[in-house]
Amino acid sequence: MVTGMKEKTQWKEFIETISVLQLVMSFLFLGVACLTLMVYLMFTSLWPIPTLYFTWQLLDWYTPEREGRRTEFVRKWKVWEHFRDYFPVKLVKTAELSPSKNYILGCHPHGIMSVGAFCCFSTESCGSAQLFPGVQLTLAILAGLFRLPLFRDYIMSAGLRPVSKESIEYLLSRCGEGNAVVIIIGGAEESLASSPGVNTVVMRQRKGFVRLALENGADLVPVYSFGENDLFKQVVFPEGSMGRRLQSIFKHVMGFAPCLFAGERWLLMPYRSPVTTVVGSPISVPRVPCPSEEQVDHYHRLYMEALTHLFHKHKTSCGLKDSHQLQII
What we know:
Strand order of the largest sheet: 1-10-7-2-5-3-4
Membrane topology: Multi-pass membrane protein
Shape: globular
GO molecular function: diacylglycerol O-acyltransferase activity
Pfam families: DAGAT
Enzyme class: transferase
Organism: Chanos chanos (Milkfish)
């Protein structure tokens, strides 16, 4: 029988598995491992190494929120192509992004590990530079990760930036035109709702990104990663339960939420389920240095309407049934 799909060899599947496993392990443990290593070395004969590094880190403290240290070499690693193929991940453009403008892309949903956002916007494996020529896409993530020694340098090399007001304003106001900051709007709270078949986004009360867009005259662009929530199964605690309260306390203190999840193999490997990240049409936003609450609410409403339209327009082509609905909380 002749088919249009070429079956993967066992070697290819193995390489894909290793590529995904290294990112999962990095996501879960690399930051803590780097910190532990440097602290341990402080109490050995190699103490000058961490001492010099920590001194340099203090001098380099604000680099993540300013110019960063993005390298195309890391973004184009071959490992990211194998990572992409494991699911696979696909990036879909629905409209042009002009390099003469700046943008804030709101990406939904968070999922457990934001695989679609990372693959599409922090690597070149999905061809973002070719799809959006002249526009530099930058994924903004938890600011605390940039305080971890060594790990900060690794994630900066992939072009990641802190999701802080200072970092985003620097990109939108001091780096010229053609900058697009990708923010996973729902954050840690949205990850707690991640579960196969669920399409829930947290954003009704999240308006800070709209205010930043108005203050800097950056157009808003909705993005939805179909299939993101299908990569892991999660124990979802009901609202008001002890488990949910403990998760909320941890999130408030640490900035991220501990999710009890399981994957396809070894509990850590995500399911081989397609992820399609669809970038919608930009919403034109004027520059208003001091926007009123009414203006913020107006563009926030336009954004939610555009996100809902994007979801319903592409859900069937991305593997969902026509009956699936988007829940915004």
